[in-house]
Amino acid sequence: MKVTEHIEKAKGETLFSFEIIPPIKGRSIQELYDNIDPLMEFNPPFVDVTTSREEYVYIDRDGLLDKKLTRMRPGTVG
Question: pLDDT tens digits, residue range 20-68?
């Protein structure tokens, strides 16, 4: 169900949802589930797994800095 459908279905009542970030690259998906499980007692209509922001990493290449765009987490699609 789409978020907009949840809002329409609520008919003006307040909805609470949660937004979480995915685990850091190389870490287990179980970490994500461990964070979501305690929230389920609040019966949210949806949980949003957000993408992380992009970050720049500077790599030293013999005295010159090379600017590289990277993400620290895999993002929503990942």
Answer: 877 777 778 888 888 889 999 998 988 887 776 667 888 999 889 998 8
CB-CB contact of 26 with 42 (8 Å): no
Q: Where exactly are the structural domains of the chain?
A: 3-71
CA distance linking residue 72 with residue 57, whole number of Å: 10
12 Rama sector, left if φ>0, alpha if ψ -120 to 50, beta otherwise: left
Distances (CA, A) of 50 to 26, 64, 66: 17, 34, 28
Q: Which residues contact 8 (CB under 8 A, 6 or more apart)?
A: none
Three-class HEC string of the chain: CCHHHHHHHHCCCCCCCEEECCCCCCCCCHHHHHHHHHHHHHCCCCEEECCCCEEEEEEEECCEEEEEEEECCCCCCC
